[in-house]
């Protein structure tokens, strides 16, 4: 199991304040990026490598992946 002690969770600035479906990300941990559902902060966490995260973010920004 991955040690998430010290994870600093944040939501997208585009998530708004309406309590909707949000993903939180912690990208301050060495060697991993952690993702979780903001509605279930004690629930499961997905971890991926920094390279995979960067590729995902680039794909979203360029429109290769859309909502």
Notes on the protein architecture:
This protein is an alpha+beta fold. It has one helix and four strands. It has one helix at residues 50-62; strands spanning 10-11, 23-26, 33-37, 46-48. A four-stranded antiparallel sheet has the order 1-2-3-4. The longest helix is centred in the C-terminal third of the chain and has 13 residues, at 50-62. The mean pLDDT is 87.
Question: What count of helical segments does DSSP give?
Answer: 1
The radius of gyration computed from the alpha-carbon positions, rounded to a whole number of angstroms, is: 12 Å
Ranges with pLDDT <50 over ≥5 residues? Answer: none
Q: Strand percentage, roughly?
A: 15-25%
* Total E-strand runs: 4
- Classification by helices and strands: alpha+beta
Mean pLDDT: 87
Summarize the helix and strand pattern as letters: EEEEH
Inertia-based shape? globular
Q: Which strand order do you get reading across the main beta sheet?
A: 1-2-3-4
- Summarize the main sheet: 4 strands, antiparallel
Cα distance, first to last residue?
30 Å
């Amino acid at each position: 199991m991955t040690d998430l002690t010290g994870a600093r969770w944040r939501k997208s600035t585009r998530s708004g304040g309406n309590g909707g479906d949000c993903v939180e990300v912690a990208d301050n941990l060495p060697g991993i990026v952690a993702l979780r559902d903001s509605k279930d902060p004690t629930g499961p966490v997905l971890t991926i490598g920094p390279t995979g995260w960067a590729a995902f973010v680039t794909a979203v920004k360029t429109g290769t992946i859309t909502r």
